[in-house]
C-alpha cells in the first residue's frame, strides 16, 4: 500500500485554517488511491475466444462506386465540374435521349463517390448502408437521390448496386445546422448485394486458423491452451504471435459450424502490454494494470515526487507539494497528481520526464 505525504500551502489549498476540511481531504485522497491500487487486482479479465480472435477467411470487403445524386435544389455541381455534365449526358443517352453535354446545366446534380462495406456471408438480396460523398463543388446533398450506381471490390467485379434517397442528418426546414457536413450523406439500406463473396475457412487437412485481433505471443499460447482445455484434447497449437492452428476433432466431422461456435465460447485471459495513454488537452490518463514506476525522484515546479522513498535528512520547503510513494504503480502517481490539481500540461511533462529517466516500465502514448 502506497504511503502518501502531502505538504500543501495555505494560499492554494486553504486547509491549515480548517483542520476538518484538511482531514476530509486527506481521507478522500487516501480512499481514492486505495481504490486505484485495488481495482486492477479485483479480478482477472476473462474474455471469450471470439472476443480476442477471429477465424481466418471470415472477413468483410470494401466496395466503391462512382455515380450521381439528382434532385438537389440548386446546390449541385456548377459549370466548373465538366465530368458531372458528361456523366449525366451518358446516362440520359442510355434512355434514347441524345444531346451535347455542353447544353446541360447540372446545378441540381452532383457527382459522388459511393462506398459500402460488404460483410462476410452477405447473401444476394441483402441490403447495406452506403456512404455518399460529393467529389465536385456541390454545396449540399440534402434532399437528393442517388441514382443507380454499381459498387465494385478490389478485383473490379460488381458485388452490389446502390440507389435511393440520401440523408445528411439535418432537419427538412431548409436551415443549415451549425457544424453540419452537407457534402457527405448516407443511403440507408440503399445498396443491394448482387453477388456473394465465397469464404473458405477450413483447409484440406480439416484445419482452420484463428487470428488474434491484437498479436501477442502470450495471448496466442493462452488461447491455444484455452481451446485444448475446453475440448479436453489437444486440437490447437500456437503458430506465431498472431495465429493459432486448430484441427477439427473427429467428433465434429461434418459439423464445422458447430465446432467453431463451441470453440468461440472458450474462456481465455488475454495478456495486455503495459501502456499509459495521456490526453494532452484534458489531462485524462488511461493506465494498464501492469504499468509501474521504478524508484525515481522528479522535480517539476513546486512539485516533488519521490517513488521508492527519499533521504529524510534532506529538508524541503513547506511551500512545496511533496508526494512520497513506495512500490508505486502509475495509477497511484496519476491519482495523487490529479488530487492536488496538477494542470494537464504539467501532468504530461512529469510523465515524459519519468519515461525519459527510464523509470516508467510501460509504453507512453499521447492522444
UniProtKB/TrEMBL annotation:
Residues 1-43 form the signal peptide. GO terms for cellular component: bacterial-type flagellum basal body, distal rod, P ring; outer membrane-bounded periplasmic space. Keywords: Bacterial flagellum, Cell projection, Cilium, Flagellum, Signal. InterPro entries: Flag_FlgI. It holds the Pfam family FlgI. GO terms for molecular function: structural molecule activity. It is found in: Bacterial flagellum basal body. GO terms for biological process: bacterial-type flagellum-dependent cell motility. It comes from the Bacteria. Assembles around the rod to form the L-ring and probably protects the motor/basal body from shearing forces during rotation. Belongs to the FlgI family. The basal body constitutes a major portion of the flagellar organelle and consists of four rings (L,P,S, and M) mounted on a central rod. This is Flagellar P-ring protein.
Amino acid at each position: 500500500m502506497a504511503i502518501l505525504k502531502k505538504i500543501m500551502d495555505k494560499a492554494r489549498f486553504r486547509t491549515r485554517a480548517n483542520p476538518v476540511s484538511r482531514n476530509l481531504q486527506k481521507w478522500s485522497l487516501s480512499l481514492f488511491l486505495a481504490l486505484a491500487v485495488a481495482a486492477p487486482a479485483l479480478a482477472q479479465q476473462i474474455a471469450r475466444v471470439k472476443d480476442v480472435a477471429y477465424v481466418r477467411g471470415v472477413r468483410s470487403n470494401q466496395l466503391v462506386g462512382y455515380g450521381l445524386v439528382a434532385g438537389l435544389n440548386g446546390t449541385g455541381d456548377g459549370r466548373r465540374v465538366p465530368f458531372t455534365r458528361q456523366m449525366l449526358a451518358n446516362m440520359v443517352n442510355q434512355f434514347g435521349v441524345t444531346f451535347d453535354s455542353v447544353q446541360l446545366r447540372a446545378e441540381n446534380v452532383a457527382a459522388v463517390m459511393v462506398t459500402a462495406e460488404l460483410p462476410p456471408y452477405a447473401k444476394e438480396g441483402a441490403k447495406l448502408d452506403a456512404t455518399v460523398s460529393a467529389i465536385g463543388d456541390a454545396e449540399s446533398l440534402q434532399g437528393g437521390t442517388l441514382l443507380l450506381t454499381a459498387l465494385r471490390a478490389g478485383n473490379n467485379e460488381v458485388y452490389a448496386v446502390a440507389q435511393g434517397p440520401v440523408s445528411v442528418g439535418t432537419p427538412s426546414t431548409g436551415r443549415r445546422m451549425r457544424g453540419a457536413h452537407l457534402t457527405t450523406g448516407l443511403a440507408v439500406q440503399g445498396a443491394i448485394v448482387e453477388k456473394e463473396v465465397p469464404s473458405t475457412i477450413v483447409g484440406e487437412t480439416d484445419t482452420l486458423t484463428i487470428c488474434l485481433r491484437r498479436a501477442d505471443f502470450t495471448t496466442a499460447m493462452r488461447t491455444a491452451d484455452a481451446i485444448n482445455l475446453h475440448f479436453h484434447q489437444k486440437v490447437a497449437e500456437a503458430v506465431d504471435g498472431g495465429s493459432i492452428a486448430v484441427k477439427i476433432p473427429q467428433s465434429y466431422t461434418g459439423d464445422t459450424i458447430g465446432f467453431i461456435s463451441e470453440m468461440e465460447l472458450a474462456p481465455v485471459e488475454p495478456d495486455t502490454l503495459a501502456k499509459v495513454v495521456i490526453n494532452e488537452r484534458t489531462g485524462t490518463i488511461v493506465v494498464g494494470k501492469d504499468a509501474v514506476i521504478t524508484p525515481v525522484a522528479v522535480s517539476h515546479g513546486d512539485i516533488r515526487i519521490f517513488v521508492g522513498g527519499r533521504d529524510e535528512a534532506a529538508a524541503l520547503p513547506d511551500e512545496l507539494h511533496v508526494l512520497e510513494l513506495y512500490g508505486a504503480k502509475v495509477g497511484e502517481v496519476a491519482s495523487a497528481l490529479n488530487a492536488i490539481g496538477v494542470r494537464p500540461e504539467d501532468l504530461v511533462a512529469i510523465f515524459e520526464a519519468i519515461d525519459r529517466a527510464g523509470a516508467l516500465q510501460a509504453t507512453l502514448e499521447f492522444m
